[in-house]
Amino acid sequence: MNELPDNETRHKIIEVAEALFSTRGYAAVKLRDIAEAVQMKHASLYYYVPGGKEQLFIEVFEHSFQRHQLGISQAIQQAGDSFIDQLYAVADWFATQPAIDLNKIQQGDRPNLTPENLQRLAQLAYDSLRMPIVAAIEQAHSRQQIEVEHFDLAAMALISMVQSTSNIPGITLKGRKQLGHMLINMLMEGWLPR
Questions:
Q1: What gap in Å lies between CA 154 and CA 159, rounded to an integer?
Q2: Does the CA dihedral 155-157-160-165 come out positive or negative?
Q3: Residue 22 in contact with residue 28, Cβ under 8 Å?
Q4: If you placed Cys at 94, which of 20, 127, 136, 162 could pair as Cys (CB 3.0 to 4.6 Å)?
C-alpha cells in the first residue's frame, strides 16, 4: 500500500473538510464540495483520500481530537501546579475552539458511518478530551488539593460545562472565558452552604 501524501494540499483538504463537516454534518457534505473549496478537481481528491468521504471524515476528526488533546495538555502544563489555574487554562483553551458536537457525530451521522468507525470516533473523542484532564485531576488528588472519587466522571463533567458556553448565542470570546471561569468556580466551591 502506498503512503498517502503529507503536504500543504492534504492539510488544506483536512482543514476545509473539518469546517464543512462541523457546520453541515457528514450527510450534507459531498466530496465535490470539498474539492471545489480547495480548488481542485473532484477526481483529484481521491489521490489524497482513496477511501472517499468516510475515510476523510474519520481523518478530519482524528486530526481534530489530536489537536484538542495536545492543546489541553499544553494549557495544563503552562498553567503551573495550581489546579484551579490548570482548570481555568482548560476553560480558556476550549473557549478558543469550535465546539465538538459529539451527539451530532453519534446520532446525526450514524446511518452514514460504519459501526466500527462510529465506535472508533467515540472512543477517540472520549480519550483525547478526557485523558489530559484526568491526569491533572489525579495529580491534584495526590497532592491532596481536591477530593474526587471518579476522575473520569469529573473530567467529563468539566468538559461538558466549559463546552456549553459555546451554545450561548452572541457571546464573545472574552465572555466565554469569563463564563468558563465562573463554571469552574461553581464546580470547585460546590453549591451547598458550608
A1: 9
A2: negative
A3: no
A4: 162
Phi-psi group of 25: left, alpha or beta (phi > 0 → left; psi -120 to 50 → alpha; rest → beta): left
Cell numbers for 30: 459531498
Q: How confident is the model at residue 3 (pLDDT cuts 50, 70, 90)?
A: low
How far apart (Å, rounded) are the C-alpha atoms in residues 188 and 182? 10
Asked if residue 100 lies in contact with residue 64, where contact means CB atoms within 8 angstroms, the answer is yes
Which triple of cell numbers denotes residue 152?
A: 473520569
**Residues 45-98: tens digit of each pLDDT:** 998 889 888 889 888 888 888 999 999 999 999 999 999 999 999 999 999 987
Residue among 10, 27, 101, 135 nearest 63 (CA): 10
- Do residues 147 and 141 touch, judged by C-beta distance below 8 A? yes
Q: Where are the alpha helices (DSSP H) in the chain?
A: 8-24, 31-37, 45-48, 52-78, 83-95, 102-103, 115-142, 151-163, 173-189
Q: Whole-model pTM?
A: 0.81
pLDDT tens-digit map of 100-120: 766 665 555 555 778 888 888
